[in-house]
Design brief:
Elements (H helix, E strand, L loop, with lengths): L1 H18 L10 E7 L2 E6 L9 E5 L4 E4 L5 H10 L8 E5 L5 H4 L10 E5 H7 L8 H22 L3 H20 L10 E3 L2 E6 L2 E7 L9 E5 L4 E5 L17 H6 L8 E4 L5 E2 L2 H22 L4 H7 L19 H11 L5
Parallel strand pairs: 4-5, 5-6, 6-7, 11-12
Antiparallel strand pairs: 1-2, 2-3, 3-4, 8-9, 9-10, 10-11, 12-13
């Protein structure tokens, strides 16, 4: 089933690539922003679908990468473009969690690179990740998404809008084609609650603070440099809640406070400073949990509850909140957690 699905995606993707073969692609797929000397945030520029951010930690003799992006191709491109900032070899890859936009590039990092992640992350990546969950849903929906993009690009009359759609189609067809050689690759080294790496004079702490965005989120803390890489436990906006433990997430965030960090490299969005986003997101999560729990107790179906939940009180911090209502899939997950059916 998986092979047939990936083959169908590849055929659609290659058709899109052939249609746009004459369009030259910009050179740089990543923007490497130095946060402190030797520590970079790697953010996609839009020319390649990278899915998430990485952190790049250049040590005296080697490099540590935090998260491998959304596909083998995006990871390969990042490895190539790393030459712009260092010629040192990558020694460790850290997975902050199991989601495909952070771990689908793992296979590119072969021996002698150790892939480090939480035990939960390894369990999920050795499980039925291709049969159910976010990535399985992505694969199933991709052929239609590409067909819709092609149709919209072909019918668009506004030149600027057509150019944007053409670029999006090029990026997405290339992404789809890159999944043909995907081999889900789990961590080769796992941690339970913490691990410390030492490289030259660099100390790199890997910390599990409890269930939050997933059941196995790892943050990476550089105490000397006061830099924290949060994955999706804390991002610039509202993190994806589809695999979250919303009731426990605020407690995991609370454990970030004692860490002496000044700069944050999140899994999505621009780097930021300070700890105020901890307060913002804790308040959002607690409000969501309270409302969803009350509606669940009233026997309101998850789809109906999603329409009734009102988080507009948090709009000052999250501009994407336009009015009452939240993603129904998020509420379905909340109900799973309430009913103790969540993995």
């Amino acid at each position: 089933m998986r092979r047939r699905l990936l083959s169908a995606i590849a055929l659609v993707a290659l058709g899109g690539l052939a249609f746009h073969a004459q369009t030259p692609a910009p050179q740089a797929a990543y923007r490497f922003q130095q946060i402190v000397p030797g520590v970079y945030s790697a953010i996609g520029t839009g020319t390649v679908n990278v899915g998430s951010n990485s952190a790049v930690i250049v040590n005296r003799d080697d490099v540590v990468i935090v998260d491998s992006h959304i596909s083998p191709e995006s990871a390969r491109v990042m490895m190539q473009e790393l030459e712009a900032i260092t010629d040192k070899p990558v020694r460790y890859l850290i997975n902050t969690h199991f989601h495909y936009d952070h771990a689908n590039g793992n296979q590119v990092f072969g021996t002698p690179v150790d892939i480090i992640g939480h035990e939960y992350t390894r369990r999920r990546l050795t499980g039925d990740i291709l049969e159910k969950g976010m990535f399985a849903d992505l694969l199933k929906g991709m052929p239609k998404q590409l067909d819709d993009l092609k149709a919209r690009a072909a019918s668009e009359q506004d030149a600027a809008a057509k150019s944007r759609l053409d670029r999006q189609l090029r990026v997405q067809t290339a992404f789809a084609a890159s999944l043909e050689d995907l081999k889900v690759t789990p961590p080769t080294v796992t941690i339970d609650d913490r691990m410390t790496l030492f490289s030259g004079d660099r100390e790199i702490r890997l910390l599990y603070l409890g269930r939050g965005h997933t059941g196995g989120d790892v943050v990476v803390f550089l105490p000397k440099e006061r830099v924290l890489c949060t994955g999706d436990l804390l991002v610039t906006g509202i993190a994806n809640l589809i695999d979250g433990f919303v009731n426990e997430w605020p407690d995991a965030l609370e454990k970030l406070r004692p860490l002496d960090f000044a700069d944050v490299i999140p899994g999505h969005g621009e780097p930021f400073k300070g700890k105020e986003r901890i307060d913002w997101f804790q308040a959002y999560l607690r409000d969501l949990w309270k409302q969803a729990s009350a509606l669940h107790d009233q026997k309101v179906a998850a789809a109906d509850a999603a329409k009734r939940i009102d988080l507009t009180a948090h709009k000052a911090h999250y501009a994407t909140i336009n009015g009452p209502g939240v993603n129904p899939a998020y509420v379905a997950r909340l109900y799973e957690v309430i009913e103790k059916k969540a993995e």
